[in-house]
Amino acid sequence: MNTSSPFFVRRLAAGAALAVLALCALPVGAADAPTVPAAPNRYAATLAPLERFEVGGVLVERHGAASGRPLVFIPGLASGSWAWQDAVRAFGPKHPVYVLTLPGFDGRPAAPPAPFTAAKAAVSQLLAQRHLDRPVLVGHSLGGILALALAEEQPTAIGGVVSIDGLPVMPGTEEMTPNERARFAETMGAQVARQPADRFAAQQQTYMRTIGSIDIGRADDLARLSARSDPASVGRYAADVLNVDLRPALASITAPVLVVMPFLGLDSDQQGQTEEAKLDYYRALMAGTPKLKVVPVAPSRHFAMFDQPQAVIDAVDTFLKSL
Fold this sequence. Notes:
Blueprint lengths: L5 H9 L4 H7 L25 E5 L2 E7 L6 E4 L10 H7 L4 E6 L13 H15 L6 E5 L1 H12 L6 E5 L13 H16 L3 H16 L3 H11 L4 H12 L14 E6 L2 H6 L4 H11 L6 E6 L6 H4 L1 H14 L1
Helix pairs in contact: 2-6, 4-5, 6-9, 7-8
């Protein structure tokens, strides 16, 4: 990929919603970072759920209260329930909390063909089986995109959407034609899918250090967790999501939508972008959403819930109280 192209620059400026683009754009040598030695991981999932079960291949862990508005947390690409430990602690006392892990991520069995569509069907099945009344879907990156897609398709069933750096179209691809986007998605997904495990792990580390988190030690710990995912499955999800453009149906979403926008001045200064300019860009990609709020969280990178956990929790809490 040409790293001087407008698509690449705009993607970085937007804070990419998926790791795959940044990983595939890395120079070959960048993936040769030293392997982080195995050690107890401070960010690994440690909370024991009240219940653990599967729906359509998706692992569901239930925590929290017996009553209240249900919250469904959907991690992003190559992430697992470890992404939401702070959120479970914060919201479990007042809400039933369901934390999902998608097939192929965090050591789960490989994803099926067309995994994004399969994941949507599984979440819909969960809502129906558990009779979840207008739940709030909280997603990060891929999980946020999935939440927006479900809110478009089932507007009366969803009570709210929180998307942490997940947008209706991949930043930098919004001006591509459908055919261009499809070719791009196929190429990028294949590049990730065919990686051996050691190279995938090294790229996860490089990604987390440059795009994922502002703290190197935290980035390395998170990379060790995301590297537990299956590269072939990650590639399939990446190809699916790169092909997605939810913008035409955003007006059909009746639930309030909160988009949490990470911002780090150090990164944005290199591209000559201000926080207000990035906010304008996110609002433009979400144009047509009837009840939209975009909130910046700074300083943070893509995994804002780790860089600024309390700020993200406060933003979600304020949103929930407004419903």
